[in-house]
Each structure stands twice: as structure tokens, then as C-alpha cells.
Write a structure and sequence with these properties.
14 helices; alpha/beta; 2 domains; 24 strands; four-stranded mixed β-sheet; UDP-n-acetylglucosamine1-carboxyvinyl-transferase, Chain
């Protein structure tokens, strides 16, 4: 594949930013918002609560939560997207109450919300679990020191939003450091929040009585950028990717260079070139700034056509190897021992009908199809639409023979 492509806004930055608009009665204007299934779900949730939502352009949003008519996030919406839990902190902080459905199970792991609830209780909220819902009440949250025993992105985001309107100081220790967390923090600062330690593992928030409206541009999606880089690598291509932020992708750059990819920053764009089969790589997923679990499946697709034996260890989610059986249907040679996969590269994969089990697995199978002989049919691509905007159009523009078909 060859050519030039642009990266969309980051889903994982857009979702908490949309939830943060519940913290103020004034308008919040967001730009570079990706048009994705998960974004539509979050907007439907806020509109059901009474938020006024307008879309002046395909990638911008005007949101105003001046008066809410409901403080409930119902099961039928939350079950389709776990990030819906991000409305919990803002609702309790501003309105003193919330009723949010428990997210339930997840195909890639349990991802419990215990840390969200423990943090809110430490800030004074009364929390009950009733009939599958979290019910939280508090006249006004009070700042406290909260130590996360494991790094949690949505937990950090939820409690950081809640702390903005709490009385006094809140300290989040072992906070998640992902760029999407920092992007949310910058939005909150522009709304009038007092936050220190952005981008570090210790975030300090001094609560204020109210927040104001703001305008913010969502950061580019580093996972989409990485997926496009792997697409260049798996097809021995030369692709210029515009819109990515290289500083957010350093460990990925390192691993792709180990695999033999030439990576250059050209005119504020990322040029990814590969002219041979990938070399073996060893990867261990870790919270940021480690190797992102959201890039694990794509990296496995690349290793499947490598020149030797690669190893990928998944340490973040316990069930994130479900794409392996589908890759093996395409001729990949993979052995799993616990949370580690050993991949013996093959010269070519073979096209086959495969089924996506989650968002990143769907991207993995599309990438594998680019490198396979014959036709690969990926079903359940609604998973892909949750996190990639127009992926087939972008790949087609780079020379891929790919199309979306109806059942």
C-alpha cells in the first residue's frame, strides 16, 4: 500500500470530553470529534438526560447541559459501551446524584468499576448497588487522597472530573498517564478547573464551585495511527500518515523499527515504510507509556507474517487473545501459554471467513486480510465501527482492495 492518509480524532479522548460537559451549564464546543458508534451512544445518553446537542459540522459538537431532566444512565445504553460509566462522576459532582447501570461483562476482560466507587465513597458519596444500578448521592463531594492500586484510565478520568467540583483538594496517586487522560485534563482546565500534575502519576485537583464553557480540539487517535502504520508494514508499503502525534507513540515506533520498519517524521507527518518481511519482535503490553494493549492484536497480525518467532505477552486484559483462533484459520502459527502468545511467522496467510470478537480484534483481522492470499471476509464489523472512522475508505485510498458488503 502507498499514499497519504489522515488520522481521525481519538475515540478514547472524545468520550470523556463529552461526559465532562455535564459539569457545566454553559456550552462546550468540541472539534475533531470522530464519527463513531461509541460517540453516538454517548451523545444519545446525554440527550436522554436533557443535554442539548448540536453538530454544526460532521466533526464538531456543541453541547449544553443547562438543565437535566434525568440523572440515569440506563442499561440499554450502558451495555453497549462501558465508557458510559464516565457520566457517574460528573453527575454526582454537579447535581448530587446519579443512577448508572453497571456495565456488566466485557469480551476482553472484566474491567471492574470498583475503583471508581471506592474513590467516590472516599469523597463522601453514599453509594448503593440496586437491581444492577449504581445509585450515588452526595450534597457536595469533599476532596481526599485516593490511591489506585492498579492504573485505571476511566477511573482516573471519572474521579478527576468529580474532584473539579468537590470541596477542597483531591490527590489521585498512581493515576493513569495516557494522553487521553491529559487531553481531558486540559479541557477541564479550559473550563476553569485547577489541576496540577497533568501527564504524571500524581494529579492534584483543587475544587471550584462551578465550571464554565470552553472550546477544545480532540487529540488525534494514536491507536488508529498505529494501526495504519502496521497496515503499511504488513503490505510492504510506504504510507504517509498525517495528524498523529509522534510523542504519544514512542514505544510503538521502537517495536516497529525492531521489526524492520523505517519511520520518519516528515512535515509533521509520520512516514512508515517496510520493504521486507518483518523481523521477530517481543512485546509486553503495559499502561502508558508502555506498549498499548489496544495495539496488541494488530502487532500480532504483523508478527504472523514475520521471518521468525515473536512473543507477545498481554498483561492488561485477561481475555484479549480471542483473535488468535481466527488468525490461525488464516494459516497463522500461534501457540498460547497463559497470557503469552508465541508466533512463528509464515510467508503468507490465506484468505478465509473470520469473525471479529471485539474492536481491536476486528482491526487485526482486516490487517491480516491485507496480507493474505485470496479473499478474507470479516464478519461482525460493527466492532470496527466503534473505534475506526471510515477504515475501509482510508485503506482503499492507499491501494487496498477492500469493500463493505451487506449480509
Amino acid at each position: 500500500m502507498q499514499g497519504e492518509v489522515s488520522v481521525s480524532g481519538a475515540k478514547n479522548a472524545a468520550l470523556p470530553s463529552i461526559a465532562a460537559t455535564l459539569l457545566t451549564e454553559q456550552e462546550v464546543f468540541l472539534e475533531n470529534v470522530p464519527h463513531l458508534g461509541d460517540v453516538c451512544t454517548m451523545l444519545n445518553l446525554l440527550m436522554r438526560m436533557g443535554t442539548q446537542v448540536e453538530r454544526p459540522t460532521p466533526h464538531s459538537l456543541s453541547l449544553r447541559a443547562e438543565r437535566l431532566t434525568s440523572w440515569e444512565a440506563p442499561y440499554e445504553l450502558v451495555k453497549t459501551m462501558r465508557a458510559s460509566i464516565l457520566v457517574l462522576g460528573p453527575l454526582v459532582a454537579r447535581f448530587g446524584r446519579a443512577r448508572v447501570s453497571l456495565p456488566g461483562g466485557c469480551s476482553i476482560g472484566s474491567r471492574p468499576i470498583d475503583l471508581h466507587l471506592i474513590g467516590l465513597e472516599r469523597m463522601g458519596a453514599q453509594i448503593e448497588l440496586k437491581e444492577g444500578y449504581v445509585e450515588a448521592e452526595c450534597r457536595r463531594l469533599k476532596g481526599n487522597t485516593i490511591l489506585f492500586d492498579i492504573s485505571t484510565v476511566t477511573g482516573t478520568e471519572n474521579l478527576m472530573m468529580a474532584a473539579c467540583l468537590a470541596e477542597g483538594r483531591t490527590v489521585l496517586e498512581n493515576a493513569a498517564r495516557e494522553p487521553e487522560v491529559s487531553d481531558l485534563a486540559q479541557l477541564l482546565v479550559s473550563m476553569g478547573a485547577h489541576i496540577e500534575g497533568i501527564g504524571s502519576g500524581r494529579i492534584v485537583i483543587e475544587g471550584v464551585k462551578e465550571l464554565k464553557g470552553a472550546r477544545r480540539r480532540i487529540i488525534p487517535d494514536r491507536i488508529e495511527a498505529g494501526t495504519l502504520m502496521v497496515a503499511a508494514g504488513i503490505t510492504k508499503g510506504d504510507v504517509l500518515i498525517r495528524g498523529g502525534i509522534p510523542e504519544h507513540m514512542q514505544i510503538l515506533f521502537e517495536k516497529l523499527r525492531e521489526a524492520g520498519m523505517t519511520i520518519q517524521i516528515v512535515d509533521q507527518a509520520i512516514r512508515a515504510r517496510m520493504d521486507r518481511r518483518p523481523s521477530p519482535v517481543n512485546v509486553r503490553t503495559l499502561p502508558y507509556p508502555g506498549f498499548a494493549t489496544d495495539m496488541q492484536a494488530q502487532m500480532m497480525a504483523l508478527a504472523s507474517v514475520g521471518r521468525g518467532r515473536s512473543m507477545i505477552a498481554e498483561t492488561v486484559f485477561e481475555n484479549r487473545f480471542m483473535h488468535i483462533n481466527e488468525l490461525m484459520r488464516m494459516g497463522a502459527k500461534i501457540r498460547v501459554a497463559g497470557s503469552t502468545a508465541f508466533i512463528q511467522g509464515v510467508p503468507r496467510l490465506s484468505g478465509a471467513p473470520v469473525m471479529a470478537t471485539d474492536l481491536r480484534a476486528s482491526a487485526c483481522l482486516v490487517l491480516a486480510g491485507l496480507a493474505a492470499d485470496g479473499v478474507t471476509s470479516v464478519s461482525r464489523v460493527y466492532h470496527l465501527d466503534r473505534g475506526y472512522e471510515g477504515m475501509e475508505q482510508k485503506l482503499s485510498a492507499l491501494g487496498a482492495r477492500i469493500e463493505r458488503v451487506s449480509d
